[in-house]
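Postdoc handover notes: sequence design on the structure in folder B. Input tokens:
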């Protein structure tokens, strides 16, 4: 299948994809803030530069996009029809990087929570996220 836009337009569209302050990230930040959690954003000193860092709980949260980080079984984790080999390699590298970063953070003693883009609309899932963060067992 051919792309419906020209190469320059596609390039401009792809470069506009944000890496921080995304809509799902904003939902999580507002939810946590409303319940009294205070956090830091995108700490460069930590592996993977987590989206939210909660120092009091020694916990970090990644808000992953289902498409880019390959949420298993999710309808948003599709593969583009154009250049599928390129995309498979790209997605595999993203998943490997995510796994490595979680291992590194855990080795440093951090609790690591991941919430997926498709889950941020669920109040129940956001409450479970809070439980993951505040759980003393880590």
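Designed sequence:
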């Amino acid at each position: 299948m051919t792309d419906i836009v020209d190469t320059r337009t596609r390039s401009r569209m792809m470069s506009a994809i944000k890496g921080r302050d995304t809509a799902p990230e904003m939902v999580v930040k507002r939810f946590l803030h409303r319940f009294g959690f205070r956090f830091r954003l995108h700490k460069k000193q930590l592996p993977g530069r987590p989206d939210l860092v909660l120092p009091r709980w020694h916990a970090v949260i990644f808000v992953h996009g289902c498409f880019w980080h390959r949420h298993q079984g999710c309808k948003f984790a599709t593969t583009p029809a154009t250049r599928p080999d390129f995309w498979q390699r790209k997605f595999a590298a993203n998943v490997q990087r995510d796994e490595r970063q979680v291992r590194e953070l855990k080795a440093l003693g951090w609790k690591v929570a991941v919430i997926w883009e498709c889950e941020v609309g669920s109040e129940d899932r956001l409450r479970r996220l809070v439980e993951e963060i505040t759980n003393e067992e880590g």
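Context for whoever picks this up: The longest strand covers residues 59-64. Don't rerun without checking with the PI first.
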